[in-house]
Amino acid sequence: MDYPNDYIEKQDDVVKRNFENFIRGLNNAINVKRIAYIIKMCKNARKILDVGSGGYLPFITGANYAIDISPLAGDLLARIGWKGEFKVADCTAIPYPDKYFDFAYCTEVIEHLPTLDHVKKTISELDRVAITWLITTPAASEFGKRDRWNTEPDHRLFIDIDTLYKLVKPYNAVVWKEDLTLYAVKYAKKTRTEINI
Fold this sequence. Notes:
Structural class: alpha/beta
Strand order of the largest sheet: 3-2-1-4-5-7-6
Number of domains: 1
Number of strands: 7
CATH topology: Rossmann fold
Largest sheet: 7 strands, mixed
Number of helices: 7
Mean pLDDT: 88
CATH class: Alpha Beta
Order of helices and strands: HHEHEHEEHEHHEE
Shape: globular
Low-confidence stretches: 144-149, 191-197
Distance between the termini: 35 Å
Helix content: 25-40%
């Protein structure tokens, strides 16, 4: 899909800021809880894809594949010793075959995309390449109550729970809000309760 002229180069800045936050420590309770949930979802999967990986998350979650539109993400992952497969790729055109992954996640990415059409295509691609998938995004209704919403200059979309539900409804995904984060999950077979979330 097309992006504004400066979009891709700005993503290097986003990756750099997030990596610096990682180096300082993941002491934000909301981030720790979200990452713990992702790790739990990864537990029984063999092939795991991080979509919009930034420079550190696959190292923590155990994802063995990662894509990001920013080449800097791959450089930073290598710097911290991550041994998976990284590709510079657009989340609206994931370069893997259908149902290649047991689990894919796209966490805190869609709010950076330029349009809802990009979000729709990203969801479609997640569903195409993964059996089970997860999306998280900051809850738009909490705008102003969460510091990073006030300080992250590249959040372009503010998605509320109703909008996220409409976006993932064609895929029979489950949507909920926890703390200040929206979650959407498409499960392979088990329900949210069955995997003890």
